[in-house]
Amino acid sequence: MFSVYGITGQVFSGTLEEMNRVRGMARARSSRPIDREDISWQLDNLSMAGTRPNAKAVQAYRAMLPREIERGPLYHAGQIMQREVICVGVNNEVGMAWRTLQSHNIRQAPVLDDAAQLVGMVAEHDLLTAINIDTGKLMEVLGRLVGDVMSTPVITAHPVTDIRRIAAAMLTHRIDGVPVTGDLGRLVGYVSRSDILRAVVADPPLSLWR
Q: What whole-number percentage of the chain has pLDDT above 70?
């Protein structure tokens, strides 16, 4: 289950498919995986066109394609998320937000309002529109607040959301991470690409192509 939060509060709650149909949220996928039917169709067309690949090579290639196997264990956001999340305030100065990101060696952070409700995300590239950096030092800051440069609305996931669905949302909407919110909309964690990769390489592995 996914939700979308903006400066007016929750603006969406539903499945990934429903979210992708919301106007302004959907983005075309940059690519799609190649499946067994794609490969078979291409190999058959090569033969019909008179370009016959080596039969043993074709057989070996088809043999290495993923087959129907038992699905691996299911991971939820709540199992892999970071529970201690570095946040900034919507009314913080951009210079303060920049120092927060740098001191914790992170590239983005959730943005909370005065009631501790999630209202957006702010990344380094957002802050750089309002500050001047020279050799890593903060040289000049325009009189702007985090709320002036943050990205909003922001996509969030429920703690029991399948991480495969979260990965799909990241790819579709081209985001690097997803905040995790509880039933009352409170921020309870954060799932990054690195968190998902660590889960993928864990033993036993996930069957992520299904």
A: 69
Instruction: State the greatest distance between any 2 C-alpha atoms of the chain, in Å, as a whole number.
Output: 69
This prediction has a pTM of 0.71
Taken in order of first residue, the domains within the chain and their CATH numbers are 2-27+73-200 (3.10.580.10), 33-67 (no CATH)
Q: What is the pLDDT of residue 58?
A: 61
Question: Mean pLDDT across the stretch 178-193?
Answer: 93
Answer yes or no: is pLDDT of 28 > 50: no
